[in-house]
Design goal:
The chain has 14 helices and no strands. The chain is mostly helical. The radius of gyration is 22 Å and the shape is elongated.
Length: about 350
């Protein structure tokens, strides 16, 4: 278990305790399951939404749910977790809460067709997708901060390297899971119109289980520092900070503070923001359209077979077309290559 006992030596009164490798591992282990779930989402949501009735031209509109949720949720959760202290700590309550919601949404999303009597499956799928992505963002932000909170400065490189390794292992596992369930276990990978393929459904069930299990491991094996200890390690006055946080600020004052922080952030962060903008610009195009692009150009499937109205008029998908759309595994090859490169980098960095 990650311990937080203050070093008895007076020379180390205001220094975070040195952590063993396995203590650092425990701090980030939950990110393994979170990334498995996130990768299952990124590599399968376009296929799920298409199976539930979304046409190719509207997929990008459905995918807007993800960045909008990230834009809204991450700053709010980051600010709230900075001010939250309870018996579990400051970050772990958000990590656990987000994981519970995300795991539940992962079970519901591929079963959206079951609520057809109450709400159109595509609308239900979109709502669950938005909730799930919001839950992932609730979990992501505190997990990233947890390493900084718990690990001493001289071990930050190790801490973030372990986290990066676990993230990329999770991405590889999540991306390959439907493929393994189809080609090794033997589950059917062909979906009927309006329903999701069994291989994808069970991949989401497994992903939700691993997500919740790995997060619970981190929650029970990691004990966050008490606020007075944490601020002492930062050479800050806890009582003064507590008084400052107790002062109620108006929305305009909060927004003003945010823009001042944004303006004064280090130049390297501004440069990184530009790089991240163009990286995510390309990633969302890949996640949204790679499955359809590969299906059309590698298997020769006409674009009409991505139009729900045309499929209905033709009496459903021919078996060969359904098999081709499933065989793509929603851009598995490209996503896997990307994540394997990152995994190799994290191993040798």
């Amino acid at each position: 278990m990650t311990t937080t006992d203050t070093d008895k030596s007076s020379n180390n009164t205001h220094r975070k305790p040195h952590l063993s490798f396995w203590q650092i591992w425990n701090v980030s282990f939950g990110f393994l399951g979170v990334q498995i779930g996130f990768s299952l989402q990124n590599s399968n949501v376009s296929r799920i939404l298409s199976d539930l009735g979304a046409d190719l031209s509207s997929l990008s509109l459905f995918w807007l749910a993800a960045p909008i949720m990230g834009l809204l949720v991450q700053p709010i959760v980051g600010a709230l977790s900075d001010r939250t202290w309870n018996r579990m700590g400051r970050r772990l309550p958000f990590v656990l809460g987000g994981a519970l919601v995300a795991a539940t949404a992962m079970i519901l999303l591929p079963n959206a067709s079951m609520v057809v009597a109450f709400i159109p499956p595509i609308i239900f799928g979109l709502l669950i997708f938005a909730i799930k992505d919001a839950a992932f963002n609730v979990t992501f932000q505190p997990f990233r901060s947890l390493v900084s909170d718990m690990v001493p400065a001289e071990q930050h490189n190790l801490g973030y390297s372990v986290q990066t390794l676990l993230i990329n292992i999770g991405a590889v596992v999540g991306s390959t899971l439907p493929f393994v369930l189809t080609n090794v276990i033997g589950l059917d990978n062909i979906s009927e119109q309006g329903k999701v393929a069994p291989s994808v459904i069970w991949a989401f069930y497994i992903g939700a289980t691993v997500l919740l299990g790995s997060v619970l491991w981190t929650v029970f094996r990691t004990k966050e520092y008490k606020p007075e200890d944490y601020y002492a390690y930062q050479n800050l006055n806890y009582e003064k900070i507590k008084q400052e946080q107790a002062v109620k600020k108006t929305l305009s004052e909060r927004l003003s503070g945010y823009w001042i922080l944004l303006k004064d952030m280090p130049i390297i962060m501004k440069q990184l923001a530009i790089v991240q903008f163009f990286s995510w610009f390309a990633l969302f195009i890949m996640w949204t359209y790679t499955p359809a692009a590969i299906t059309q150009h590698a298997w020769g499937v006409a674009v009409d077979w991505f139009d729900p109205a045309y499929i209905t008029a033709m009496g459903g998908l021919p078996e060969t077309v359904a098999a081709a759309k499933g065989a793509v595994m929603t851009g598995l090859a490209f996503y896997m290559l990307h994540k394997l490169c990152l995994l190799c980098f994290s191993l040798f960095y």
